[in-house]
């Protein structure tokens, strides 16, 4: 039986070029969220660094030895809250990853998700971006537990791949969290649409956590951090400015929706299926 309620805070953080200032602001927001009763606090993609391939190498750190990891660990322990650490550029040997860390209430690293699907797109006259020029993809699904609730992690472009969400739902997740930095082209078109699609097709809660918008940045984030329920309804949403969304996620809704529309029992696995290969 899933825990009935989990109070979460989704932090839409303003991100600049000063790493120490970015991290200090994230720590401040974690403590503020805890003061509002949050049990889990999630940060956005690339919260300690500008988003851009030319920045990843300079801002990259080892996990969990880097300064950002140490700051998140300390903040989680001091606040007594689970922290989903958005993403940071991670250095591991000669490779770089876009990585989300998760810290429990004692400051222990309990999960690490490396972005599996790299953002390589080319929309003529709009945006061209190739993360694969500098980043390597992760190869593992990531699930952790907070207050009895199984939570699955994806990062930004991972949101477009429903097979990944399906496997996390199949393994018991009632909430999926996607730190992401959709841009001014894909954000208006697909940010909310994809979040609602994943919530609807997997019948669970979906949290999308964006950085705040900086119109002067080289890569301008869409913002609009959003929380979606298992019916596919948007229950809370921010605008483009720095802010924190705090909401209690009712996990009993997951069971209610799945019992009302029992698609899990109706899938034709004699004809098709989605399987975890590793």
TrEMBL record:
Q: Which organism is it from?
A: Pieris brassicae (White butterfly)
Keyword terms of this UniProt record: Hydrolase
Instruction: List this protein's GO terms for biological process.
Output: asparagine metabolic process; glutamine metabolic process; oxaloacetate metabolic process
The similarity comment for this entry is: Belongs to the carbon-nitrogen hydrolase superfamily. NIT1/NIT2 family.
Q: Which residues form the CN hydrolase domain?
A: 6-251
Alphabetical list of Pfam families matching this protein? CN_hydrolase
What is this protein's name?
Answer: omega-amidase
Q: Which reaction does it catalyse?
A: 2-oxoglutaramate + H2O = 2-oxoglutarate + NH4(+); 2-oxosuccinamate + H2O = oxaloacetate + NH4(+)
């Amino acid at each position: 039986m899933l825990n009935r309620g989990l109070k979460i805070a989704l932090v839409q953080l303003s991100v600049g070029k000063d790493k120490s200032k970015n991290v200090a602001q994230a720590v401040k927001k974690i403590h503020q969220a805890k003061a509002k009763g949050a049990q889990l606090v999630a940060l956005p993609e690339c919260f300690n660094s500008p988003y851009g391939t030319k920045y990843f190498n300079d801002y990259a750190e080892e996990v969990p030895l880097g300064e950002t990891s140490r700051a998140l660990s300390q903040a989680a322990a001091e606040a007594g809250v689970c922290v989903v650490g958005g993403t940071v550029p991670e250095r591991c040997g000669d490779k770089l990853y876009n990585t989300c860390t998760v810290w429990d209430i004692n400051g222990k690293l309990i999960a690490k998700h490396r972005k599996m699907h790299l953002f390589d797109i080319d929309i003529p006259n709009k945006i061209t971006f190739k993360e694969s020029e500098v980043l390597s993809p992760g190869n593992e699904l990531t699930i952790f537990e907070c207050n009895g609730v199984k939570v699955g992690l994806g990062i930004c472009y991972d949101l477009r791949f429903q097979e990944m969400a399906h496997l996390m739902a199949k393994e018991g997740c009632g909430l999926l969290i996607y730190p992401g930095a959709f841009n001014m082209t894909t954000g208006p078109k697909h940010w909310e649409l994809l979040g609602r699609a994943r919530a609807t097709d997997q019948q669970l809660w979906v949290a999308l956590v964006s950085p705040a918008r900086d119109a002067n940045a080289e890569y301008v984030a869409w913002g609009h951090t959003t929380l979606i329920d298992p019916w596919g309804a948007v229950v809370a949403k921010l605008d483009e400015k720095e802010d924190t969304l705090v909401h209690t996620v009712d996990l009993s809704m997951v069971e209610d929706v799945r019992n009302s529309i029992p698609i899990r029992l109706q899938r034709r696995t004699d004809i098709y299926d989605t399987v975890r290969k590793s």
